[in-house]
Structures are given as structure tokens and as C-alpha cells.
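Quick one: C-alpha cells for this chain, please?
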Amino acid sequence: MGQARLTRIDAAEEMAAAVDAFRNEANAAIESLDMEIRRALEWIHHERHDYWNHQVRRGWERITEARIQLQQAMTGRRIGDHDPACIDEKKALARAKQRLEIAQHKVEAVRHCTREVDRAVDEYRGARTPLSIWLESEVPKALASLRRMMDNLEEYLALHGPGGGLADAATAANATNGAGGAPARQDAGDTLPTLQVDAGEATTQPAAEADDATVNPDAIRPAHPPGGAS
């Protein structure tokens, strides 16, 4: 397993804060996207659908009205066997037919777009699900593991850090050695053992490096990162 070496006691605390901030930002982004998707679905499924279907019905009404007006004009303006031109009424009927064709085309376009939008939304939700599950289940586990590490590090420093039992013993030993000759040098690295942290549990082992702590990052790494990311 890989290991990381802590040189500052607040490193685990900073990492926990960063993980928690990422979780909050990711949840906010997902909620914002979901809201925009709901608006888009409402617009395509209801607003546009209802509008253009209404325009189709209105188009048929306009055609009926235009035909009645044309028939009335032809009847009223007829002179003998000669049919009147009724140019304006015929143009109005042609415009009504054209508007109906446009509305019918829009209805088909909305139906096609609705299928495409629904498919895209389903793909997005399928891809988002692993991230949502990870944020809901794995991130709290990682934060709990980091908090255990911070508690273990604090307990370790309380016992073996400056002012702790090992530090006092080293001070006494240095005083004894100094009485018989040259004073013995006291360094924090000579008295502080290394803290081995794995899966939230802490043990100690002697080491010559000051204030170092070896941390297994797998202890805080989520078992299944979202989207297959490593």
C-alpha cells in the first residue's frame, strides 16, 4: 500500500476541510443542474407542446373562417354566371393554410426534440448516480477516518511530544550525561518516535526524524471513486 509522510499536525485537518468543501460544492452543482433540467423538461413537455397543439387547432379554425368568408364573397359578388375574383379572401385562405402547416411542422419538431431531450437526461442521470452515491456514502466515511487520524495524532503528541513522557525522560538523560562530561545534545528528532497511521489506528515506532507521521492514504481514499476515476 502507498504511504504519505505528514510533517504537520494540521495536514489531516486541512485535508478533511478540503474534502468537506468538495462535497458541498458538488452537491450544490448537482442540485443546480437538476433544477435546470426540470425547467427544460417543463418547457419542452408542456409549454411548447401545448402551445403548438393549440396553434394547430386554431389553424383549422382560421381555415374554416377563411373558407366561409370566401364563399360569402363569391355568392354576394356573383354577377350572372360570372364568378368574382375575391382575391383578398383567397389570399386569406392561403395564409391560414400556410400557418396551419407551420404549426403542424412545429408539433412534429417538438415531439422529436422531446424524445432527444428525454434520452439525454436519462444518460446524464445514469452518469451522475455513481457520483451522488459516492458523495452520500463514501465521503462521510473518509471524513470520519480523517477525524480518527486527527484524534490519534493529538493523543500521540500529548503522550510523546514536547512536554510528554518521552521528552521528560530524554531531558533527564541529557542532564545525567552532561554531569559527567560534555552536555548531551537534545533534539526533538532524537526523542520523538514516528507515528504509523493506518485505517484510523495509530501505533508508534522509533525514528530519527522530528515530528514526522506516516499516513496510509488508502485509509481515507473512497473504495469506489465516482466515474471510475483513480
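The two ends are 15 Å apart (CA to CA).
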